[in-house]
Specification:
alpha+beta, Cytochrome p450, five-stranded mixed β-sheet, three-stranded antiparallel β-sheet, globular
Length: about 400
């Protein structure tokens, strides 16, 4: 599959033509460099996200040896101790129990209460950008908004919040295809520091509870079930990382797309009623999470291909969101698109618990920039991050 080249700058700049080639040539493609089966069609990706023959993990059913897999290196253990006990990496019954407990604290009402804070912070950040005559949209608005919001929810003191983004970036490096050992080393260091910080913060909240998500997680219980200390730490890390990583990249990817489609940007500036559908379309058009992995726990058929137990499938969200079998003219950015069943927030039991918060943040930053920076324009061509799975920009320079 010469078109699918995640290490190629040309592919990273625009992977969507390669996805079209994959879709045209079948429903499952074995990709030897990452030892995965690539799944490019929307119908298959959507179905497999809900298929219990696949899982985010396999340890609830098999040992590494039984599954035909090599255990991770012992030196990577701090990363896996933090990452693998988060509900994103677990399967029932542990996933069911943890998600039920977390949902008691992370409710729609909790998110709704944040709306004035999110909107006010978005306006403050944009006002500062305007006062400075422009700058980097990523560091001025896209990054500080969701970091501050999820930190506020969890009760992370303001002075500590600059620590979060570097830890998150180091840990998320492990989600790329075949991460090098240097990436693993940074992730391990970040995992140790992040875990230690969260344990201290949780201990403080046990003695001094407040009206924050960590206090809510400490209190969450169902009969005799509670989150263990390790599950608490993993849950907080997951919420902090997932609570801003996708939103940061969706914001800059979205504005980069708007700048390249001035007719759509003009339509949005003229009609703010487009804002809800614009958020969904920007999430679809250049998806911040391009790939989501699943282990094959029992053989599964994808078209005429039987993928065996022990294999790994790579569900191509970016390709699924551009599938012409589902989306009319998928390569066209259409902020008024009504039929938009994108899967940028996943599906099934691992559907993003923070999707309402992400939508709130994206709408708030879009609205504030449209209101307060009506002349917002690009100041040069941005550099693309050398990542495939988590798609984003190094920065987005703008003028006002």
């Amino acid at each position: 599959m010469p078109d699918f080249a995640p290490d190629s700058p040309a592919f990273l700049a625009d992977p969507y033509p390669a996805y079209a080639t994959l879709r045209a040539h079948g429903r499952a493609h074995y990709y030897e460099p990452s030892d995965q089966w690539l799944v490019p069609h929307h119908a298959d990706v959507s179905a497999l996200l809900r298929d219990r023959r696949l899982g985010r993990s396999y340890g609830h059913r098999f040992t590494h040896e039984e599954f035909g897999r090599t255990p991770p290196p012992a030196g990577h253990e701090p990363f896996h101790e933090l990452n693998d006990q988060g509900m994103l990496e677990l399967e029932p019954p542990d996933h069911t129990r943890i998600r039920r407990l977390v949902s008691q604290a992370f409710t729609p009402r909790t998110v709704d209460r944040l709306a004035p804070y999110v909107q006010g912070l978005a306006r403050t950040l944009v006002e500062r950008l305007v006062a400075e005559g422009g700058g980097d949209l990523l560091t001025a608005v896209a990054e500080p908004l969701p970091v501050a919001v999820i930190a506020e929810m969890l009760g992370v003191p303001e002075a500590d919040r600059p620590l979060l983004r570097p830890w998150s970036a180091a840990i998320c490096g492990m989600y790329e295809l075949n991460p090098p050992e240097e990436t693993a080393r940074r992730a391990v260091t970040a995992s140790l520091e992040f875990s230690g910080y969260l344990r201290d913060l949780i201990a403080h909240r046990r003695n001094h509870p407040g009206d924050d998500l960590i206090s809510g997680l400490i209190d969450a219980h169902d009969q005799d079930e509670r989150l263990t200390e390790a599950e608490m730490v993993a849950t907080c890390a997951l919420l902090l990382n997932a609570g801003h990583e996708a939103t940061v990249n969706a914001t800059v990817n979205g504005w980069h797309a708007l700048f390249r489609h001035p007719d759509q940007l003009a339509a949005l500036r003229a009609d703010r009623a487009l804002l809800p559908t614009a958020v969904e379309e920007l999430m679809r058009y250049d998806t911040p999470l391009q790939l989501f992995e699943r282990w094959v726990l029992d053989p599964v058929e994808i078209g005429t291909t039987t993928v065996p137990r022990g294999a790994e499938v790579a569900l191509l969200f970016g390709s699924a969101n551009h599938d012409p079998a589902v989306f009319d003219a998928p390569e066209r950015l259409d902020l008024a698109r009504r039929e938009n069943p994108h899967i940028s927030f996943s599906a099934g039991i691992h559907y993003c618990i923070g999707a309402p918060l992400a939508r709130l943040e994206l709408a708030a930053s879009l609205g504030a920039l449209l209101d307060l920076a009506p002349g917002l324009a690009p100041a040069g061509e941005p550099a693309r991050k050398p990542n495939f799975v988590i798609r984003g920009l190094e920065g987005l320079p703008v003028t006002v």
